[in-house]
Amino acid sequence: MKVYYDKDADLSLVKGKNVAIIGYGSQGHAHAQNLNDSGVKVTVGVRKSGPSWAKAEQAGLKVAEVADAVKQAVTRKTLVLGIQHFTAADLRAVQAAGQALQIRVLGLASIAPDVSPELALAAIESLTVLGALHASAAVKAALANRMR
Fold first, then answer.
1. With helix as H, strand as E and coil as C, how does 56-115 read?
2. Residue 45: which CATH number?
3. Is residue 99 included in any domain, yes or no?
């Protein structure tokens, strides 16, 4: 097992960028606080009605609804840490807006079973996942040449 230390990290990769942390549980809390303490611009994506919203605000972090945090991060071509989930409705909305997603996730990217390969191709321009990708075999095959 390799252990990584502060000296092994290159913060220049995320300095000056907006990083979305999805969820504010034990991992999301730790990621958000560490990045924020290191000078990275962090937005925590949680449910407005959930208890994590107030906790993240009290910690001095920028907080947004999950969809808004993801949209902001994707629009600005930044990195999402945690879990990013896309349903057919999400992708149809992107397609209806005449946009295409450039998805970058450190953690879990999930594309719902109701997403067809055709819809995925129409709405997803590129996909970079450092972690795990959950999607149907057909969607993975359709996006294979768009994965980095």
1. HHHCCCEEECHHHHHHHHHHCCCCEEEEEEECHHHHHHHHHCCCCEEEEEEEEEEECCCC
2. 3.40.50.720
3. yes
For residue 4, being part of any structural domain is answered with no
Is there a domain that residue 11 lies in? no
Take residue 32 and report the two structure tokens written for it. Answer: 């958000």
Question: In terms of domains, do 66 and 83 share one?
Answer: no
Domain that holds residue 52: 17-76
Residue 81 in tokens: 């840490």
How do the pLDDT tens digits run along the chain, 148 residues long? 777 777 777 777 677 677 888 889 888 899 899 889 988 888 998 988 889 999 999 999 999 998 888 776 655 555 788 888 999 998 998 888 777 888 889 889 999 999 999 999 999 989 999 899 999 999 999 999 999 8
Tokens of 30: 């730790």
